[in-house]
């Protein structure tokens, strides 16, 4: 896999290079885009920094493993999700997706990830799952470091240092594997070769069959040959995988019945609005455990759910409008568009599970492998959002469920950061690619 590398931040004389005349002036004045910000905040590639990156990965992942082995922080039980995966693994062995299971809400490709620990039969299911998750994590780290090899390593550092902000939760969810598919797809799309574009599309197609959202990695592909090659490969791969799974397993589309019944999860932006209203005495609803998550039940919940779906449709329409209006593509545009799309869909969703932050950190890391990205401030907003997500779950989850002042405050701050990141990403993507350049 190869990537196109722009010139280094400084030439051999040490002077800053001139800025491109096509770059909007509104963005060049941002302190986040300055050479001072870049060089002061991140380290350049070399043997020493790469060793430091490897050491940081090893130490942070050892800490995550220690937390997972104890699994007693906050409400504890983070690893129970892997027990559910193991239960589904037994059903896959009998040739069916979980029939009538309200907690099975994933596309059929997710079954491949959940069955994957079977390739390590000498380990327990839990041990094999964590091992494969760490392997996927290491692959993401290496891919990001390689993409940065001629420039700066801040993309890899965002991933290596950002993931532990979610404590041990990433090791007990299959979202690291899903994020790896999206990261590798985006990095492949940035190469020149047709085969790389097809590979990127195929990886995005597999990712879409695993957890839907990686299909958004293709929203920013340049018009023309790259889009045709990537989108065709994604569609062919996804359909082939779906047909294969439907041939060998029954109930492959059963997850659709469960998704349609979801309500407002307490950790979503809509849930935070209801929690705030309930704390103020303006809403009489309650929390119930439904469809594998805590959701709000009461007046206006259904209306808010429909509003959330409407805003998701509007977000998708905005992305299509952006694609039609965009006039300038840089090597970072596919990365920036993917992060913006996933942020918009996350912010408008009825459900925001803590593992969604894994997706956002991975996409932000890809953006920061390129000097052309306009998403640096967005990436920085996601770091405290990830830390607050860990406070919300598992550390203070009881407070969030019962809607105490502390629990509501944590969710307001976390979701406020996500909303700000989504709006900022949309603005910067539009301004950098679709706004006419002033002569």
Structure overview:
The chain is an all-alpha fold and 439 residues long. It folds into 2 domains: 44-252, no CATH class; 262-439. The chain has 18 helices and 3 strands. It has helices spanning 25-28, 35-41, 47-70, 80-93, 110-115, 125-147, 154-162, 175-189, 194-211, 225-248, 255-259, 269-279, 301-325, 333-348, 356-367, 376-395, 397-402, 405-433, and strands at residues 264-265, 286-290, 293-297. The chain has a 3-stranded antiparallel β-sheet. A hairpin with a 2-residue loop joins β2 and β3 (293-297). α9 (194-211) crosses α10. The longest helix has 29 residues, at 405-433.
Tell me the count of domains: 2
Counting DSSP E segments of at least 2 residues, the number of strands comes to: 3
Rg over alpha carbons: 22 Å
- Oligomer designation: single chain
State the helicity in percent bands.
55-70%
Query: Poorly predicted ranges (pLDDT <50, ≥5 residues)?
Result: 1-46
Strand arrangement, major sheet: 1-3-2
Could you tell me the mean pLDDT?
87
Helix-strand string = HHHHHHHHHHHEHEEHHHHHH
Distance between the termini: 38 Å
> How does the overall form come out from the CA principal axes?
globular
Query: Strand pairing plus helix content: what structural class?
Result: mainly alpha
Q: How is the biggest beta sheet arranged? A: 3 strands, antiparallel
* Proportion of beta-strand residues: under 5%
Structure annotation, total helices: 18
Protein name: DUF2029 domain-containing protein
Region (Disordered): 1-32
Subcellular location: Cell membrane
GO molecular function: hexosyltransferase activity
């Amino acid at each position: 896999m190869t990537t196109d590398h722009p010139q280094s931040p400084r030439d051999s004389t040490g002077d800053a290079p001139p800025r491109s005349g096509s770059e909007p002036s509104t963005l060049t004045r941002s302190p986040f885009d300055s050479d001072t910000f870049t060089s002061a905040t991140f380290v350049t590639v070399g043997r020493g920094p790469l060793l430091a990156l490897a050491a940081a990965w090893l130490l942070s992942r050892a800490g995550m493993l220690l937390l997972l082995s104890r699994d007693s922080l906050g409400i504890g039980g983070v690893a129970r999700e892997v027990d559910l995966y193991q239960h589904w693994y037994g059903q896959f062995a009998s040739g069916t997706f979980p029939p009538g299971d309200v907690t099975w809400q994933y596309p059929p490709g997710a079954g491949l990830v959940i069955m994957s620990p079977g390739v390590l039969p000498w380990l327990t299911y839990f041990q094999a799952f964590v091992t494969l998750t760490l392997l996927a994590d290491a692959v993401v780290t290496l891919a990001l470091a390689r993409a940065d090899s001629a420039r700066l390593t801040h993309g890899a550092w965002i991933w290596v240092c950002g993931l532990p902000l979610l404590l041990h939760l990433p090791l007990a969810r299959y979202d690291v594997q899903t994020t790896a598919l999206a990261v590798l797809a985006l990095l492949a799309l940035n190469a020149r070769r047709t085969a790389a574009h097809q590979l990127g599309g195929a990886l995005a197609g597999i990712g879409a069959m695993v957890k839907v959202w990686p299909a958004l990695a293709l929203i920013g592909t340049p018009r023309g040959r790259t889009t045709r090659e990537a989108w065709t490969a994604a569609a062919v791969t996804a359909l082939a995988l779906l047909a294969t799974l439907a041939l060998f397993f029954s109930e492959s589309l059963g997850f659709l019945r469960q998704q349609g019944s979801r309500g407002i999860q307490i950790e979503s932006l809509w849930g935070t609005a209801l929690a705030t209203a309930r704390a103020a005495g303006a809403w009489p609803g309650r929390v119930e455990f439904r469809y594998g998550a805590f959701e709000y039940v009461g007046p206006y919940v259904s209306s808010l759910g429909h509003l959330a779906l409407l805003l998701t449709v509007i977000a998708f329409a905005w992305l299509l409008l952006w694609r039609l209006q965009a006039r300038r593509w840089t090597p970072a545009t596919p990365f920036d568009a993917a992060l913006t799309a996933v942020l918009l869909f996350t912010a408008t969703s009825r459900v925001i599970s803590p593992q969604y932050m894994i997706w956002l950190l991975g996409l932000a890391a890809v953006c920061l492998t390129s000097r052309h990205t306009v998403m640096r401030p967005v990436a920085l907003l996601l770091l405290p959002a990830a830390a607050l997500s860990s406070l919300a779950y598992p550390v203070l989850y009881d407070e969030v469920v019962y809607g105490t002042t502390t629990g509501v405050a944590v969710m307001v701050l976390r979701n406020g950061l996500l909303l700000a990141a989504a709006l900022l990403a949309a603005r910067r993507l539009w301004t950098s690619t679709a706004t006419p350049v002033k002569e």
